[in-house]
Amino acid sequence: MTSKSKKYIKEAYSYIILILVAVILCYPLLWMFFASFKTNSEIFSEINLFPREFNFNAYRDGWKGVANNTFTRFFSNSFLLVIPTALLTVISSTLVAYGFARFEFKGKRIMFLVLLSTLMLPNSILLIPRYSIFLTLNTLDSFSPFYLMAVFACYPFFTYMLVQFIRGIPRELDESARMDGCGSFRTLISILLPLLKPALFSAGLLQFLWTYNDYFNPLIYVNSVKKFPVSLALRLTMDAETVIIWKNIMAMSCLAVLPVVILFFLCQRYFIEGIATTGLKG
């Protein structure tokens, strides 16, 4: 057997393993999709992946929502919550990271250690202080708590990630910009931001995914059904029915997954590049 044949066999084994892993990882999504065409009896009494017949009644009935609120409102609420939060997080984290990575000031090391220490705090510890603050500010039952946390860079993971990325960019670029008459802010906008594009996409995409999938925090801060995002609406749909029609839940779950999947495939090149380069330059 020639070395070329061995190479082809090795590649074939690699692809077979990758395909098997992909099938295993995608199987829950496939099951959820096909379950949206099954009745309750089919779901609980049969092991077949494919339904007896295909009809889209579950998507029509599930979209009607609950309490006179359709999933049009719930999806709109999710996007009103997630998109500003992701954008504000990227902007605030970039500014804070730029300060830590490029400027020297008194107490910088201590402040950076405090920033890192907050990464180890579980969300449950921060919940009561944050709730008290937002209650005092009278911002509960709205998306303002999420916007405020994003504006003040309360997500230290993204700040740390961007600090590591900026530290990997040569300081000579900043010095050249200053020689050309650029100030600190102009240097950030014109020189560093184009180089930060992969890391910014990674931070924005991760924040979008985490906020979109978040169930606990909207449950705490949002009380009105008409302001519920999709994550809360799916649970509310289950609680509103005496007998749960699972195909409706599965249909809406499939639609809820779509924005995340589409966004990932659109941004995956920047996302993977950002994660890889951030890890290398840290």
TrEMBL record:
It is a multi-pass membrane protein. Signal peptide: none annotated. InterPro entries: MetI-like, MetI-like_sf. The chain crosses the membrane at residues 12-34, 79-100, 112-134, 146-166, 187-210, 244-266. Residues 75-267 form the ABC transmembrane type-1 domain. Pfam families: BPD_transp_1. Its main location: membrane. It comes from the Bacteria. One of its GO terms (cellular component) is plasma membrane. One of its GO terms (biological process) is transmembrane transport. The keyword Ligase does not apply. It is found in: Cell membrane. Keywords: Cell membrane, Membrane, Transmembrane, Transmembrane helix, Transport. Belongs to the binding-protein-dependent transport system permease family. PANTHER family: ABC TRANSPORTER PERMEASE PROTEIN MG189-RELATED-RELATED, ABC TRANSPORTER PERMEASE PROTEIN YESQ-RELATED. This is Inner membrane protein. It comes from Leadbettera azotonutricia (strain ATCC BAA-888 / DSM 13862 / ZAS-9). The lineage of its organism: Bacteria, Pseudomonadati, Spirochaetota, Spirochaetia, Spirochaetales.
